[in-house]
Amino acid sequence: MLSAILLQAEGALNDSIAKTAAKIAALPDSLSQMTPGKLQHDLKTFHWDTLVQNVTNQCVNLAFRILAAVVVFYLGKFIIGKLHHIVRAILLHRDVDKSLSSFLLSFMKITLLFVLVISVIGILGIETSSFIAIFASAGVAVGMALSGTLQNFAGGVLILLIKPYKVGDYIVFGEYKGYVKEIQIFHTILTTYSNEKIIIPNGGLSTGTINNFSAEKYHRLEWHVSIAYGDDVKRARQVVLDILHADRRILKDFLPDEIAAIETVQPKTETDSEKNTSFWKSIFNHHKVKQKVDDIKQLGQQQLAAKIPKKDCTPYVAVDSLGDSAVVLVVRAWTTTENYWSVLYDTYECIYERLPQEGLHFPYPQMDVYLKKN
């Protein structure tokens, strides 16, 4: 038993020696034949000046790269800050929505900082293609994971740029309707008459059908009034027209804006001193040139508006239908958007009070039954 164990240990030792010898044989000749004397000779004959010079050159190059990277980084930050202030001033001057302006400024700053960091990394001598590939892959992954959110984001940007509605407008979108309280990047918040808060994703709003009730300054109202058979229709028409004409909030003929647009601009006559002004001075007079351009533009707009047929806003009453139990009159009139609901309800109340005073009747649903005797 003991002899078997010794033989097994001797075999394992021989295998270890053989493997070590094979590794030594696999080494280069310079290492396998290295001796203490040879090592001492090589150290004495080694060119240390060349090594020091190479290390010094590398350190100097690295120092210059770091210095250039620091200068580019701070110079880039300074330029980005100036661009941020310039773009912000332009957006404020053009009265761009605050939500859109803050988003655009943040997006621009982050993008420019990313480009600056990549440039600094390249100056330091680090390969930037791998960083760009990593960011691109991460962007694709995030885009696939947040496809719905990105759609709402794109819709919010379109809404803030195109402005189909603004804060304070009363809009109708499908089954939702209310006043626009806030336009965010991803959602639009509505407030209903009962003070309910509705949050709608911008993706659907940017591609769906929106009825913006506040987009126009004037709106037409419509009432349906029923009178009994046998009542005087002309009398009912005259009473309703008297109610409408007595209300100052209701327009009586044409839209005021269309009337003003038809009036042409009288050309401004120049004085003798203005005529004697030199040609070059008139060209470089910015305010005078701007005024002439504005006058020409306004004249063109008014001439175009004059060719469009005017919209007759005279109050109108006619027989709409003959119902089973009543003669139905349709009443139409125009008013401003802010007076729409008050005029609507006040006119209903006036019609209810005036018609019975004029001998007119509101019918009730009725059915005549004839009994035939055998």
From TrEMBL:
Record's signal peptide: none
Major localization class: membrane
All copies of domain Mechanosensitive ion channel MscS C-terminal, residue ranges: 222-362
Protein's cellular compartments: Cell membrane
Gene Ontology MF annotations: mechanosensitive monoatomic ion channel activity
SUPFAM superfamilies linked: Mechanosensitive channel protein MscS (YggB), C-terminal domain, Mechanosensitive channel protein MscS (YggB), transmembrane region, Sm-like ribonucleoproteins
Transmembrane stretches, start-end: 62-80, 100-126, 132-162
Top-level taxon of origin: Bacteria
Pfam families documented for this protein: MS_channel_2nd, MS_channel_3rd
Domain annotation Mechanosensitive ion channel MscS: ranges: 149-214
Keywords linked to the UniProt accession: Cell membrane, Membrane, Transmembrane, Transmembrane helix
Topology versus the membrane: Multi-pass membrane protein
Claim: Transmembrane is one of the keywords in the record: yes
GO cellular component: plasma membrane
Family label: Belongs to the MscS (TC 1.A.23) family.
Protein name per UniProt: Mechanosensitive ion channel
